[in-house]
Amino acid sequence: xxxxxxxxxxxxxxxxxxxxxxxxxxxxxxxxxxxxxxxxxxxxxxxxxxxxxxxxxxxxxxxxxxxxxxxxxxxxxxxxxxxxxxxxxxxxxxxxxxxxxxxxxxxxxxxxxxxxxxxxxxxxxxxxxxxxxxxxxxxxxxxxxxxxxxxxxxxxxxxxxxxxxxxxxxxxxxxxxxxxxxxxxxxxxxxxxxxxxxxxxxxxxxxxxxxxxxxxxxx
Length: 219
What we know:
By secondary structure, this protein is an alpha+beta fold. It has helices at residues 67-77, 123-129, 134-141, 174-180, 188-191, 199-210; strands spanning 3-11, 14-15, 25-26, 30-32, 37-40, 43-44, 62-66, 90-93, 105-108, 111-118, 146-152, 154-156, 161-166. The chain is built from six helices and 13 strands. The protein starts with a strand and ends in a 9-residue tail after the last helix.
């Protein structure tokens, strides 16, 4: 079955005590929008980003999460989880987001996107959901969603097909990177085989391999 976008989600400003930004503002509460949305190299048009030290920028301009993984969480927590509740801009269906290869390219609408890195859970995410141990549970589940670089700006709309048009031969996936940098440091050497991985993560892997210690986060 061909992959597609279920929804395209944009975040407005939310003010809350759990917000990670020093100003107490967050854009994690994203909601589906009607009609086309422009994806640019610097992010999603109309999407508020509160803590730019950890969100936004070219390597994480767009965030995708699979509807199937959201369904697992809905069953796990016994509550409805709507599209956008993970802070994702793109809610996908029939797309293997966890198995996406670092550097692979997706044609979506008139945009061209490139898979860059997994998302790391944070205290803002746990506060938004009201689940105190969410970071630990999200890490163990290891279905983090994927950040995407915008190689060609373009508009996307709910229902658009998601076509993988290029997949690097190294085979290092979003799931592997996440597990390597959290619970399975034995996987760290694999990260050096993925040239499309952001330099910060590759350098962190090199340091960890040179000086083994406690597991770090995907960052």
